[in-house]
Design goal:
about 375 residues, mainly beta, ten-stranded antiparallel β-sheet, six-stranded antiparallel β-sheet, 26 strands, about 5% helix, about 40% strand
Length: about 375
């Protein structure tokens, strides 16, 4: 994270004695990235965070992936996925994946188990409903339009509030953060960035739970493990540092516009290992007198483009069958652009009312079984009219 926070009780100096009211020492934990060479935080636990009572293999269904072959654009209708009882961790339906990132969708109506992703950071996008993300750093509330970034190995659970919540899930094999070009060498957001520190939300108070023999599911590079901790991992009385879970609303993204159509990098919100996440938000559009507001036909030869349509009207896709909750996949090796008629219809438009999340990957995305089950197989031919 680009800046420092301190929550709860922490000692004046790090790595020094910090005692509980009964005179015993709190257990200090350093959570850091890149082997003590990058962002970190210090957490102070009531109990040793190392005390586990058992560890056993936890079996999850194998992930079936198939190449996008024959190569063609795809349209997935997430709202046609089975919305039976599910939680936001074990109930995820993987849709698209490669060796860098896995993109899924879930309709969660119950609390998830305690969970730790030891492979990489996770980004949750709330399409509909509200959730509380409880973590060892404290709790975050999130609602429609919120991104929640959960750093690698943070123990957390996702609790829907007042009904089911629809979430897009992005699981990385590394770290997710703001693009480096938005940040100074010391990590401050620069003036040209489309959002800044004031727009970010982090846990504000410790979350303390007194329980024993607590199960935590861990996803790691060899599979999944179920740990039983002697004490609940939510026993942190205070923490400080630059690494923590945080939330950002897509509605706080300030769009960058110009006299002629701007390329997708102006919409970039986050970057991860070999992928980027972009936000398309309501905005004034191009104001050159001869401007064409919708995208030109384009072929990004190095990346697959996935767009999740989450609100408003996406003018360039009108007539293609795209609807709320749709996902389009436009792969490298295929030129894509606006639907027939979209260019002429867009002339003279002054603003777009659209909301979408885009993930561009620099390695091809495979299709998972759930994607095949909800594919609109007519989509690839909708330009041929």
């Amino acid at each position: 994270m680009p800046y420092y926070r301190s929550v709860g009780e922490v000692p004046h100096k790090r790595h020094t004695q910090f005692r509980r009211p009964d005179g015993g020492l709190y257990s200090e934990e350093l959570m850091g990235q890149e082997g003590f060479s990058s962002d970190s935080s210090l957490l102070y636990h009531r109990h040793p965070p190392t005390a586990i009572a058992s560890a056993e293999v936890y079996e999850t269904p194998p992930l079936a992936r198939s190449a996008n072959h024959p190569l063609k654009p795809r349209h997935l209708r997430t709202h046609k996925l089975d919305a039976g009882p599910a939680d936001a961790v074990l109930g995820r339906r993987p849709l698209l994946a490669n060796d860098d990132v896995r993109i899924g969708y879930v309709v969660a109506d119950r609390s998830s188990p305690l969970y730790r992703d030891a492979v990489g950071d996770e980004c949750l996008y709330v399409e509909e409903g509200r959730v509380i993300v409880e973590t060892s750093f404290g709790a975050l509330e999130a609602g429609p339009g919120d991104y929640v970034i959960i750093p690698t190995s943070v123990v957390h659970r996702i609790v829907p509030q007042d009904g089911p919540a629809r979430l897009l899930t992005i699981e990385a094999t590394g770290h997710i953060g703001p693009p480096k070009r938005y940040l100074s060498v010391r990590g401050q957001f620069l003036e040209h960035a489309p959002f800044c520190e004031r727009d970010l939300r982090a846990p504000g108070t410790p979350l303390l739970v007194d329980e024993t023999d607590v199960e935590v599911l861990v996803k790691h590079r060899a599979g999944w493990t179920k740990h039983v901790y002697a004490q609940h991992p939510f026993d942190v009385v205070g923490w400080d540092g630059c690494l923590y879970p945080w939330a950002f609303s897509i509605h706080d993204f300030e769009p960058i516009t110009g006299r002629v159509h701007q390329p997708p990098p102006v919409h970039q919100t986050f970057e991860g290992p070999n992928f980027v996440i972009c936000s398309f938000v309501p905005r004034k559009v191009d104001y050159h007198p001869l401007a064409i507001p919708v995208p030109y036909n384009h072929h990004n030869v190095d990346s697959d483009e996935m767009i999740f349509y989450t609100g408003g009207n996406y003018e360039a896709r009108r007539g293609s069958g795209i609807e709320q909750g749709s996902i389009s996949l436009h792969p490298s090796g295929f030129t894509h652009g606006p639907q027939p008629g979209a260019v002429e219809r867009a002339l003279g438009i002054e603003a777009f009312d659209e909301l979408a999340v885009m993930v561009d990957t620099f390695r091809p995305l495979d299709l998972c079984d759930a994607a095949v089950a909800v594919e609109d197989t007519a989509y690839a031919w909708t330009w041929n009219r």
